């Protein structure tokens, strides 16, 4: 079946004219004559059966349909240009991988490991954008997504397949100075871990997207904590890590997201009792037909990521 696709030249002329609201400036940008730009846009309007520009005494103005179409065309042309440059750079081998990812996991766990991917597979280039919610792959340029959620949330994501990477465990962490203050009555044990009952008396940092996190942790520890819902509220794990390292309170954090802070001693584990919730990290990709194969870059990245996740998981 023949596709209803206009010519790329017509789309390029339209996108430039729409961006400049001027045929003259579009012609200058594209090294064409103004009449050539006009002919291309007229041909595009005839192809679509829709008026994109309204001619006025002073030039042209986009119609409402033209404004909406210009946004779509601009996104498509930029994506086509990026993909063209990528395949030219890689000469058809390996190639780019457009990855959507939850921000803290990407910044604190994935990015420190990407130099290893670059050494082992220099033919693969990973581009990362932030996405925290499920989306339709057909409406984006993404090839895959790193997603944090529950099995139920993953199951409700339509048209995808998901590879489990690792479960999420959280432990209480804080600055050494704050823990020393909490243990002032126990000389000589200032920085040693404490029990959940002592954590219950310390200032708590709350994650606004998980308002009952501390309550769940104290319930699992069997400790009464009347102040489990009190404390500064922050949205992201990265914010909690900074606030905790500055001594503002104790935060419930996955240790894998604060590896550098733990190594430097900016944060220490206040109580070594983890809580495993029902959230996990997944690599999500579009579902393929039974006889279809993922792109080479995605196959390489998926295999490499699974290996890194296995190394991280407890034995």
From TrEMBL:
It comes from the Bacteria. It holds the Pfam family LysR_substrate. Residues 6-63 form the HTH lysR-type domain. GO terms for biological process: DNA-templated transcription. One of its GO terms (molecular function) is DNA-binding transcription factor activity. Keywords: DNA-binding, Transcription, Transcription regulation. The keyword Lyase does not apply. Belongs to the LysR transcriptional regulatory family. This is LysR substrate-binding domain-containing protein. It comes from Delftia acidovorans (Pseudomonas acidovorans).
